[in-house]
Write a structure and sequence with these properties.
mainly beta
Length: 272
Amino acid sequence: MLSSKFTKGKMPSRLVRGFRRPLLDSYDAYIGSVDKEAICDLNGVEIARFKRAEKNEDTFGNETETRIYHSATYGDIKIIGNSLILNDAEIGYVGRRGARFAILIISLIALLALFLSLVYIAIDVPRRNHIDIIFTGENQTSMVKDKLDLFNSDIKPGSKGKYQFSIGNKEKKPVTYQFKLEEDFDKEKIETFPILYRLVSSLDTNESNVEWVTGSELVLDNCIIKSKEEQQFSLEWKWPFEGNNITDTLIGIDEAKYSVSLKITAKYYKES
């Protein structure tokens, strides 16, 4: 995931960093890269030059180093340890060069654990994610499809959980968007999944009035979000005990094959 925090030109499809270490914001989105000499944007274009290093002590008496980079646009950008500081506020952190490889290894280990496990007790731990609506070039519409990390482990009838996420508008104009869930299970073709969902937004005043529906029925239309704003959502899911026993067995045995994606389609809002 990319963020235009430091990038004023055309947004690339991926971070261009060479041998520099990646810079990420608080939502784990790439915003640039850094080495000993400079900070660069997503395109690898230099935006700040190394100015000086300062030695300090933390509250425990340990020596820390502050590296200061000067930018004509942003002023002084500081890196203290792995923290990225702008205007005395922490806006992100410095990632590792091999972060993507490490994430791949961890993902493979987690997937292997799912296949080897027979029975798990579902733990309801809210997950958080952030999705930015960004229009590229002269496009008047934007489409984002994001695979959701909904489930902690193998799921079974009676388990439930919650996934919290936000949608932000990075554009200079208000946009209107819609989104829906797309379910996939590639082991067997199943028309009706046994899992129910309900979506609660920060605008809902009475959560109890929000109905539980199937994934295919969960569609949100004609949502308007102003420029530079974001909206918060909580996607709750549950697997009722009552249902189709064959369907329950298929998904319960091979949950790793079951995935849920959030598809967002947006366009610039035009007042009628």
